[in-house]
Amino acid sequence: MENLNDMAHQDPWVKGGTSALQPEVSTNAEELEQLCSKQVTAADTQLERVRWDSALARLKYKHENNEKQRLHEEKMEQIHQQAAKIPFSQGLHDLFWPPNQNALFLCCFIFIRVIYTVRELAFFLVMKHYVFCFAIVLCFILKKIFQDYKNKKKCS
């Protein structure tokens, strides 16, 4: 117990300190102020660094976007100049011409398959619905006859 009392009298932070300890407390307060000001300036420096980094990133993005736009405009201008040099009929011919032999083979194969499928579909419809097909053909024949009859009356 005596040790605790002795320690309390020796500790400068205990209430009722002597006047000799006052300068020590004031220097601690000054050090605290300096430390806080250093932290504030460090925080300000870090905040300023973040601001500059974001501004730099924004400028970099804007520069890249402008560069992409410029390249796109140059490419489009080049395409327009090439299109102006080529006659219209030759341009259409090149448009329908496949770029290589394999593509040509594939186009021909697809075209032949489409023709074959349409032919088979037409035969299927005629075989299954021959009465309906006969009625349609008869309607077209009668329509043609009536149109010819009307044209004969107008001419007469």
UniProtKB/TrEMBL annotation:
InterPro entries: TMEM247
GO CC, any one term: endoplasmic reticulum
Pfam family, one: TMEM247
Domain of life (superkingdom): Eukaryota
Keyword Transmembrane: yes
Region ranges (Disordered): 1-20
Keywords for this protein: Membrane, Transmembrane, Transmembrane helix
Transmembrane segments: 122-142
Official protein name in the record: Transmembrane protein 247
Organism annotation: Dromaius novaehollandiae
